[in-house]
Design goal:
Length: 82
């Protein structure tokens, strides 16, 4: 379990368009708070999270694919368990 999944999560913003769901989350953990943008694509059954600095959170929320690290494999179908 990573540090981001181990903390208490609070949803700050959510938007959905054409099967794409983007959520901005504040994660309160033992080392303080962090922001993360969660992206779920129902059409491709794909899910990924983008940890972000607080000052970039709004930009990442509105433009998640500009910040996604495409060198890593997506968490296909992992949102079903979430």
């Amino acid at each position: 379990m990573t540090a981001l999944t181990a903390g208490k999560r609070t949803e700050l913003a959510h938007r959905s368009v054409d099967g794409m769901h983007v959520t901005l989350v504040w994660v309160q953990g033992s080392e303080g708070g962090k922001t993360v943008v969660c992206v779920r694509d129902d059409r491709r059954e794909d899910y990924f999270e983008i940890p972000t600095e607080t000052y970039l959170a709004r930009d990442v929320f509105y433009h998640p694919f500009a910040y996604r690290d495409f060198s890593t494999v997506g968490n296909e179908r992992s949102w079903v368990a979430a």
